[in-house]
Structure formats: structure tokens, C-alpha cells
């Protein structure tokens, strides 16, 4: 059964409690172990009929690797007063201002969040989502127009596995976290998903379309590979 999983397991590695999720995926050809950046833990994917115990054995046998990978993750940066977060690639310090008028405001090198302190993280997240949509929507429409297409919808999401997607019926979605990346990265991801309005696959014609709509594709892809995971460490 696809998608069936155990969510709340804990792997004990030398006294360190590491969150472990086990998923089952009938299409998986072998046991897969990967780092779960969302929980600072691990995910084991089991192919059809492989018992959970085998997955646990694999995780235990890779204990040293798991610890090394987890220690290598970028530190988590909470959305809190004083934290520094990137906005379009530029660092901004979050400043809490109980007396401010607008809920969230971006100034020179800072983002000011008002209201009750316990709502700061949610307010800032909502604002970033809104900013992402405000920037991405006109960009996607303009690029789609050059292809004679029009996206059916544009939605910000918080998916960890991909930066954007294009559904069969032409709905585009994007990770709102792209608003933290430099603008040319965001531009590339938008071009990529818009190109899928025409070409569903990743063949040479697809990449030609992407290249026509954005700057240096290879640089953007390399950036996402190197730094993309970091965007998930904020908030
Ligand atoms: Zn694609």
C-alpha cells in the first residue's frame, strides 16, 4: 500500500533520540533511508512486503552515517525577534515592535513584525507567503504569455520535496520559501514550472523553453542543490 506509514518512531543512537518515520511505497524497488530535514530525523521507505523490522535494521546499521548527516544540517533559525532571515537573498533582521501599525513591514535590512509576540512566527510566515505570491503570480503570467499560455491557478505551498509543480490542468504551485532565495533563483523556478505548461517532460525542448524564459539555468540549479535545503531551516 502506497503512503501507509508509521509516524512517531524514535531511533536510539547512543542515547540520542532521533525521530524516525517509516513509509511504505509499493513502487520503491529497495529499502531507502534518507534524512528528514523537517524533523531532524530519518525516513525509511519500504518496498512492497518488506517488513518494518528490516527498515529498522537498516537504520541501526547506518547509525554513524545518520548522526554525521544530522550534525551537518544547517542550524534552525526560528522566526523570532532578532533572527536574521534572507528576503530575496538579502539578510534581514526580524524586529518585534508591539506598537507598530502595520502587521508586517520590510525596511532597510529588517522586517518589522507587530502584534502579540506569540503570533510573530505565524504573522511573518503569512506575510512571506503573501510576498511570494505577489511576486510569483505576475512573473508566471508574463512568462506564460510568451508561450501563448495562461496558468489556471498559482498557489503558494510549503512542500519540502519540490520547489514548484505544474498539474495536468495547468495549475502551478510554488514553495513560498522561494521568497527567501535570490530573485534569479525564484525566476528560474517560475520559468521551469511555466515551461511545463507546454512540455510535461524534462527533455531538450523543455530545457530550451526554460532557457528562453530565464537567465542562467545551470547556476540556478546549482544554487538550489547547494543552498535550497537551508531555506527549509527557517521558521
Ligand atoms: Zn520539472
Describe the 3D structure:
The protein is α/β, with parallel strands linked by helices. It has three domains: 5-72, no CATH class; 84-118, no CATH class; 124-231, Zincin-like (2-Layer Sandwich), CATH 3.30.2010. The protein is 36% helix and 26% strand. It is built from six helices and eleven strands. The chain has helices spanning 52-61, 63-72, 120-146, 183-195, 204-213, 217-231, and strands at residues 5-13, 16-24, 32-36, 41-46, 84-87, 90-96, 104-107, 110-113, 153-157, 164-166, 171-175. It has a four-stranded mixed beta sheet, covered by helices on one side. Helix 4 (183-195) crosses helix 6 (217-231). The longest helix is centred in the middle third of the chain and has 27 residues, at 120-146. The mean pLDDT is 93. Residues 192, 196, 202 line the site of zinc ion.
Oligomer: single chain
Known CATH architecture of the largest domain: 2-Layer Sandwich
What small molecules are bound in this structure?
zinc ion
Taking the sheet with the most strands, its summary is: 4 strands, mixed
CATH fold-level assignment of the largest domain: Zincin-like
Query: What is the number of domains?
Result: 3
Task: Give the key terms.
binds zinc ion, 36% helix, 26% strand, 235 residues, 4-stranded mixed sheet, globular, alpha/beta, Zincin-like, 3 domains
Helix-strand blueprint:
Layout: E1 5-13, E2 16-24, E3 32-36, E4 41-46, H1 52-61, H2 63-72, E5 84-87, E6 90-96, E7 104-107, E8 110-113, H3 120-146, E9 153-157, E10 164-166, E11 171-175, H4 183-195, H5 204-213, H6 217-231
Parallel strand pairs: 2-4, 6-8, 9-11
Antiparallel strand pairs: 1-2, 3-4, 5-6, 7-8, 10-11
Helix pairs in contact: 3-4, 4-5, 4-6
This protein binds zinc ion (ZN).
Residues 192, 196, 202 line the site of zinc ion.
Amino acid at each position: 500500500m502506497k503512503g501507509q506509514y508509521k509516524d512517531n518512531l524514535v531511533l536510539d543512537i547512543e542515547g540520542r533520540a532521533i525521530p524516525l518515520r517509516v513509509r511504505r511505497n509499493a513502487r520503491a524497488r529497495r529499502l531507502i533511508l534518507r534524512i528528514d530535514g523537517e524533523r531532524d530525523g530519518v525516513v525509511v521507505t519500504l518496498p512492497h512486503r518488506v517488513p518494518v523490522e528490516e527498515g529498522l535494521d537498516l537504520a541501526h546499521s547506518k547509525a554513524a552515517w545518520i548522526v554525521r548527516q544530522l550534525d551537518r544540517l544547517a542550524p534552525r533559525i526560528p522566526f523570532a525577534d532578532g533572527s536574521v532571515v534572507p528576503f530575496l537573498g538579502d539578510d534581514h533582521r526580524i524586529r518585534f515592535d508591539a506598537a507598530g501599525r502595520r502587521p508586517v513591514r520590510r525596511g532597510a535590512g529588517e522586517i518589522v513584525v507587530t502584534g502579540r509576540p506569540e503570533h510573530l512566527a505565524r504573522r511573518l510566515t503569512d506575510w512571506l507567503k503573501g510576498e511570494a505570491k505577489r511576486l510569483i503570480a505576475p512573473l508566471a503570467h508574463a512568462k506564460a504569455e510568451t508561450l501563448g499560455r495562461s496558468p489556471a491557478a498559482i498557489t503558494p505551498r510549503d512542500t519540502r520535496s519540490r520547489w514548484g509543480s505544474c498539474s495536468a490542468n495547468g495549475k502551478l504551485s510554488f514553495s513560498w520559501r522561494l521568497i527567501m532565495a535570490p530573485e534569479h533563483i525564484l525566476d528560474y523556478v517560475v520559468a521551469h514550472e511555466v515551461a511545463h505548461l507546454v512540455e510535461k517532460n524534462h527533455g531538450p525542448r523543455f530545457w530550451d523553453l526554460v532557457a528562453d524564459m530565464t537567465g542562467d539555468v545551470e547556476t540556478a540549479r546549482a544554487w538550489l542543490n547547494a543552498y535550497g535545503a537551508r531555506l527549509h531551516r527557517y521558521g
